[in-house]
Amino acid sequence: MDLGLKGRGVIVAASSEGIGRAAAEAFAREGAQVAMCARTESTLRKSADEIREATRAEIYGEALDVTDAVAVTRFVEQAAKQFGRIDVCVTNAGGPPAKNFLSTSNDDWKRAIDMNFMSVVHLAKAAIPYMQRHRWGRIITITSVTVKQPVAELVMSNAVRAGVVGLVKSLSNEFGKDGILVNNVAPGYTTTERLKELAGVRALAAGAAPDDIYKAWAADTPVRRLGEPREIADVILWLASERASYVTGQTVLADGGIYRGL
After folding, report:
1. What is the bridge-based pairing of β-strands 59-63 and 88-91?
2. CA 111 to chain centre
3. d(C-alpha 127, C-alpha 151), whole Å
4. What digits encode the pLDDT tens for the residues 200-211?
5. For residues 10 and 25, what is the distance between their CA atoms, to the nearest angstrom?
C-alpha cells in the first residue's frame, strides 16, 4: 500500500530511542527524508547512522533540548533548508518522572509543562509556516493513554498531557483550511525506557520485582501483552499518510484495549 510519504520532509522529535526512533525508521523505510533530534548527541548519532544504513534514506540529526524554542526553530529551519520542505512533524518528549502529587515540587511542574506541552508549541510554531506554503501538512503528537485514563504515580503526565489534547483540537480547527491535519497518538503500556522507569517505581512500592509489574500490566491488557514501539510507529505513519486525509483533531489510542471507556 502506497502511503504517499516518499519524498516528504519529516521531523521526528526525541527519536534516538523508543517510539520516536521506531517512527523515524518507519518514515525512512517509506522513502521520506527524516530529521531527527534528541538531547544526547552520541545516542542520536548512533541511531541516525543505523537508520541511514538500514534504509538508505536521507537523515538529518541534531542534538537539542525541545524545551529550547530558539534551538527548535533553528533545527526546523535547517531541516527545511536541507529537504526543501517540511510536511510532517511528530512531536515527542520524555514523560515527567513518576511521582505522587505531594512529592512533586513547583520546579517539577514547570519542567513537565516545558517538556511535554511547550515543546509541542515550539515545534508546531516552527513547522506550520512551511506546511502552509504547500497547503499540506501533518502534525502528530505522541502523548499517553493518560490523556483518557489517569495512571497512578503519573499525576504530572495525567495533567499536562491532557493540555496537549486541547492544543491538538485547537490547531486542527485553525489550520484545517490550510490542508494541515493535527492528531494525537496515545500509547498504552509500551516496552520503552519510560515504562522501565515506571515499573521500577511500582516494584519498589510493592516490594516486588519489575518483571512482576510487567506481567501484571500484560494481564490487565485485553490483548494480554505489552505494546512494541514499532506498533505505535505504524499508527503514526498512517496518520501522516494520504490514507488518513479526512482525520483531524483526534486522539487515536494504541493501547491494546487498556482504556476501559467507550
Report:
1. unpaired
2. 17
3. 31
4. 888 888 899 999
5. 11
For residue 200, the model assigns a pLDDT of 87
User: Hey, what's the cell of 71?
Assistant: 534551538
* Distance (Å, whole) CA 170 – CA 254: 22
Res 36: pLDDT: 98
Average pLDDT, the chain: 96
Q: Determine the angle formed by the axes of helices 155-175 and 119-134, rounding to 10 degrees.
A: 20
In what helix (H) or strand (E) does residue 61 lie, and over which residues does it extend? strand 59-63
Sheet containing strand 9-12, edge to edge, reads: 59-63, 33-38, 9-12, 88-91, 137-142, 180-187, 251-254
Confidence category of residue 198, pLDDT binned at 50, 70, 90? confident
What backbone phi and psi angles, to 5 degrees, belong to 219?
Answer: -65, -30
Q: What does 77-141 look like in DSSP terms, one character per residue?
A: HHHHHHHS---EEEE--PPPP-B-GGG--HHHHHHHHIIIIIHHHHHHHHHHHHHHHHT-EEEEE
The single residue listed with the C-alpha cell 520524555 is 94
pLDDT of residue 202: 86
Contact status, residue 202 vs residue 153, Cβ threshold 8 Å: yes
pLDDT in tens, 131-181: 999 999 999 999 999 999 998 889 999 999 999 999 999 999 999 999 999
Read off the C-alpha cell for 19: 517510539
Residues 250 and 239: their CA atoms lie apart, in Å, by: 10
**What is the C-alpha separation between 145 and 200, in angstroms, rounded?**
19
